[in-house]
Amino acid sequence: MAFLLMFVTVLHLVTLAMLFIATMEKSWWSWGDIENTDLWYKCTYENATETWLCASAKDSEWLQSVQALMILSVVLSSISFMVFLGQLFTMSKGGLFYFTGLCQLFAGFAAFAAVLIYTFQRRAILQDSRELENGHFGYCYILAWVCVPLLLISGALYVHLRKRA
């Protein structure tokens, strides 16, 4: 039981870190090594100064939806972890971590909705004159997709986890 508890805790922390990185880093869509776009900025590599020049991303309703859902996912997962720690020390023996599991499941559904919106509405989100065929999804987008099943699995594990000691 201690192993399962440790596994769920580590899974939660790893997933939370990956979710935070996916939300804050600079690569949801990339055009090679010269331009990246994320949820917040559009960055272009300047050869003359060898630096990245970043400007705020053009707001669209779809982008704001993705931003809100990713932030909601991070917040729900953080709340879930704090509640888990509280329940770990205050819950009676044999209790189930229902609230923790539900928060984690909702975090997974929010992240899932965000990446689906980004997948199907990327033309409207990017609002770019450049051809999207020349670009590709960045590592943060892929990281967000990886977080979805991990969040759902950890949520399901929390729902079935009983406090033994």
From TrEMBL:
GO terms for cellular component: plasma membrane. The chain crosses the membrane at residues 68-89, 96-121, 141-161. Belongs to the PMP-22/EMP/MP20 family. InterPro entries: PMP-22/EMP/MP20-like, PMP22/EMP/MP20/Claudin, PMP22_EMP_MP20. This is Epithelial membrane protein 3. The keyword Transmembrane helix applies. Residues 1-17 form the signal peptide. The keyword Membrane applies. Keywords: Membrane, Signal, Transmembrane, Transmembrane helix. It is a multi-pass membrane protein. It is found in: Membrane. Its main location: membrane.
